[in-house]
Amino acid sequence: MEVYFTIEKTATAEYKDRGSKFLAYAFPVKTTDNVKERLQEVKKEHPKATHHCFAYRLGTDGLQFRASDDGEPSGTAGKPILGQIDSRQLTDVMVVVVRYFGGTLLGVPGLINAYKTATALVLQLIPAVQKNVEAKYTLTFDYTIQNEVMTVLKQHNCTILSQELQLFCVVHTGIPVSGRELCLLRLKEIYGLEIREQ
Is 79 in contact with 87 (CB distance < 8 Å)? Predict the structure, then answer.
């Protein structure tokens, strides 16, 4: 896999069914800590809501995920939310759907439909962004070859994750998997550059 799809913006959408109000929030997230922070934000904003159901998928391989029904009947909220994230083939995404109960029970099919629809609505508001799957490397080098190193990284669309540029430089970079071999070949041609895979 060389590319993946994610979102870079947040959005909110609303869906109503028989008096119940469903507010969907979509967030770009990178870690489970991000997930917890976003969930707390939404809970703070809606302390009186009946349920705060959510789902997320993380990582370029999409192997980290969770779906929570938060008190709704099992499988009626978290799974439909995750299903919508997956149907768009997104990762590093979290959707929280807040429900205000309107007095009428929706039943299992009604709940599944409501959570699915609220999630679909919010994800339609945000364009999916294609990103390169990257391999992470640490580059260490003398400042005299900084320009050469940075030029190669730029030409190969590498991401600079962090950098310390002093007399002795350390750059943590993400190299797109699709062009990794060529990029590494070019980097290895630079005399005095040390390359370490993370």
Answer: no
For the chain, what is the domain count?
A: 2
Cβ pair 92, 64 in contact under 8 A: no
Pairing mode of beta strands 129-132, 3-6: antiparallel
Last residue of a domain, one of 130, 146, 176: 130
DSSP codes joined into one string, 161-185? EEEE-SSEEEEEEEEEGGGHHHHHH
Domain that holds residue 70: 3-130
55 and 150 share a domain? Answer: no
What is the mean predicted confidence (pLDDT) over 34-62?
Answer: 97
pLDDT in tens, 165-189: 999 999 999 999 999 999 999 999 9
Q: Tokens standing for 159?
A: 């991401």
Which sign does the torsion angle of CA 151, 91, 4, 115 carry? negative
Question: How many Å separate Cα 138 from the centre of its chain?
Answer: 23
What is the rounded CA–CA span in Å between residue 150 and residue 80?
44
Boundary (domain end) residue, out of 130, 146, 165: 130
**Same-domain status, 92 and 173:** no
Buried b (16+ CB within 10 A) or exposed e, 24-61: bbbbbbeeeebbeebbeebeeebeebbbbbbbbbbebe
